[in-house]
Amino acid sequence: MNTMKKIVLCLGCSLLFVACNMNPNKEERIQKLETELQNSSDKINALEKKIELNQTNDTSTMKSKMPLGAFSVSLSVKNLEVSKEFYENLGFVQLGGDEAKNYLIMKNENAIIGLFQGMFDGNILTFNPGWNENGEETKSFIDIRKIQQVINNKGIEAGAEIAKDTSGPASFMITDPDGNVILFDQHR
After folding, report:
1. What is the pTM of this model?
2. What is the pLDDT along the chain (188 residues), one digit of tens a residue?
3. What span, in angstroms and rounded, lies between the C-alpha atoms of 185 and 47?
4. Alpha-carbon dihedral sign for residues 84, 90, 93, 97
5. Phi and psi at residue 32, in whole multiples of 5°?
């Protein structure tokens, strides 16, 4: 931006010089050009501040973001077949899972619900690092070990630490202030 400011100032000075030699009302013309030059300089400074503010906001927003992967609600159900039919009537379709293993993953647009029979008590909020909302692997993602480290660094108890020298599938759970269980479950 400094280069642009120099160019505008040089052009302004050149115009001022030319105007002084061509205009019989040199003083009036000089004052007018000086005012225009000052206005241009003020506009450039305002634009520079706006750009700087936007870059600061973008950086702070980026620092606060931590993509957690696909989000779903994992429901503890009494009867898998009855629950499956209920959610199909709401427009959900089976995305994954295995009825023989007592769980199904259901999807309706961007909403994902896991139905789990006899696997856990209560409902769980679930994040799957490395997966998108269609259960497909994403090109890039934050590994679950890094997510756990960030959460621990913020003073949130994130269970037994996942060994940092490992890779691939892993999981951990936290509980929010209201007792809601949140599962972080990486499958790749």
Report:
1. 0.63
2. 566 666 656 666 565 565 556 556 777 777 776 777 677 767 676 666 666 555 444 444 445 588 999 999 999 999 999 999 999 999 999 999 999 999 999 999 999 999 999 999 999 999 999 999 988 999 999 999 999 999 999 999 998 999 999 999 999 999 999 999 999 999 99
3. 45
4. negative
5. -65, -45
